[in-house]
Design a protein that fits this description.
43% of the residues lie in helices and 16% in strands. The protein is of the alpha/beta class.
């Protein structure tokens, strides 16, 4: 019984990443709801939060998949939708259009990433951030935020969003910092400090470096907190369902923590 708290829908155009030729690295991207449901059936995934695919540096493409994510959620009760929003002032009109869908049946999250521009501490982004989190609070939604080491997605930057907003709105730190520095900062203290301070902070371990799931599980057991803040996520098509599942199942074992990670915490947030 697997509940997937973070995967994508939509096929991106080929793009010349890093100065190379145009490529499509997300080889398992799905263009239709029917294809997505076939994947869920093949995996045995019983619930899924589905978010627009992104990665090509054109925010319009990610926004264009909001309707597809909403269609998925309203086509099958196993699926919940996350809507793409942006803190950039240049995207204010498109974000406003997305927020108009926030109260639609099946919508359970808003997704933002600074990979396509902006920065949490940029004053120009603060009005849009305030607007996004206010709507999340109004509709009882979770805000998903991409994390990865360095630049605007570093946990030192994204942590400001937890400090500012996670007292009122659940904040899901996608990828648990996304790499060595983020993992160590979070497991070493910061993740647990936020929980102790009453912050509604959640995470998934997609993309996590090999030692991290086991270390996090050990710290949860040692500290006695955080067991209800970690969710399984495949991050398909950028992640790998089989690999992500195997690593997290090995780290959490077959007991209460595994039940929470793979099913119960998802149910608490999205059902």
């Amino acid at each position: 019984m697997v509940h997937d708290a973070h995967r994508h829908i939509g096929v991106l155009p080929a793009y010349p990443f890093y100065g190379g030729p145009p490529v499509n690295p997300d080889t398992t991207a799905r263009a239709t709801v029917k294809q997505l449901i076939a994947d869920l059936d093949a995996e045995g995934t019983e619930r899924a939060l589905v978010i627009p695919n992104y990665g090509v540096p054109d925010p319009a493409i990610a926004f264009s998949f909001n309707e597809l994510a909403l269609e998925a959620a309203q086509s099958d009760d196993r699926i919940r939708a996350g809507l793409w929003v942006s803190p950039r002032p240049e995207d204010a009109q498109r974000t406003e259009k997305a927020l108009q869908l926030a109260g639609e049946p099946g919508v359970k999250a808003l997704k933002l990433s600074f990979l396509l521009g902006g920065r949490p501490t940029d004053p120009a982004c603060r009005p849009q951030l305030d607007r996004i989190f206010a709507e999340a609070a109004r509709h009882h939604l979770v805000v998903h935020v991409h994390t990865s080491p360095g630049a605007a997605s570093d946990i030192d930057e994204i942590g400001h969003l937890v400090d500012w907003y996670a007292g009122q709105v659940p904040v899901h730190l996608v990828h648990f910092g996304g790499g060595m520095s983020g993992h160590i900062k979070l497991v070493g203290s910061r993740f647990f400090d936020w929980i102790s301070a009453g912050k509604r902070v959640y995470t998934d371990l997609s993309w996590a470096i090999g030692f991290t799931p086991r270390w996090l599980a050990q710290e949860i057991e040692r500290r006695g907190i955080g067991h209800d803040r970690v969710l399984f996520a495949s991050d398909q098509p950028w992640g790998d369902f089989t690999g992500e599942y195997a690593r997290l199942a090995e780290a959490t074992g077959g007991g209460e923590l595994g039940d929470l990670v793979f099913r119960d915490t998802f149910a608490a947030l999205y059902d």
